[in-house]
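Sample intake — Serine hydrolase
Collected from: Lacinutrix neustonica
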Amino acid sequence: MNKTLPSLLPILFILLIATKVTAQSPFKLESIDPIEKKFSKEKLDSLGLFLEQAGSSSVMILVDGKIVYQWGNTNEKLLVHSIRKALLNSLYGIYINNGTIDTTWTLKDLGVKDISPELSPLEKSATIADLLKSRSGVYHNAAAVSEGMIKNRPERGLHKPNEFYYYNNWDFNTLGYILEKCSGETIYDLFYKHIAQPLEMAYDNKYKTVTDPHESWEIPDVDGFYQYETSKSRFPAYHFRLSARDLALYGQLYLNKGKWGDQQIVPNTG
């Protein structure tokens, strides 16, 4: 079995786009005087002014697991956009490590199919490892793609799997589908069980499905939601809404090399 360690991506300084919900994380983070950690009060005051002018929503800075600075409502749940891919990465590390998933499996092995124009035999030869590295060579349309992604997307069939890097929502959306298929649980249930509960996040595991949203649609007031765009792909984007505080806990987990207290939550195979 090919075990792929999730990238250790410390997320300790968090700027997010506001929506609505506020909930206090049960886990208590200790605050310390930033001066003790060599932070300048004047510089932090300047940072606060910058954040206000920039239209930011919340920021939390941890040093050695303790709060040295926070700004805004750090308990407010916000759409975390592509941080969802780091969350998925953690879950893959767990299910690769326990033998549920083998990163050498191909799309053909897994029976992965998408809407017309269908995947070619070459595209179906892409492995889970290729998708995790954004090197699948599959340039099918996908849910929740940005204009920049569309502009830079190669033509179908231009590159073989593992030949070319392209930051591709099709890969990540399909990885979500594969994880759910192999585990038998939703990505939200998996995150709740393996990450949110052990870290005592404010994540309540309330999620819903949004299908073919209009341009003026509002982000649902939940912890996560599937975004289907049925004219583009059968695989939804899986969005998360988390607070800066909960993301700080997640970042600390990675700085701890996947360990929380005496529990190894995310495998450390490095």
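Post-analysis note: Strands lie at 58-63, 66-72, 78-79, 207-211, 224-228, 237-242, 259-260, 263-264.
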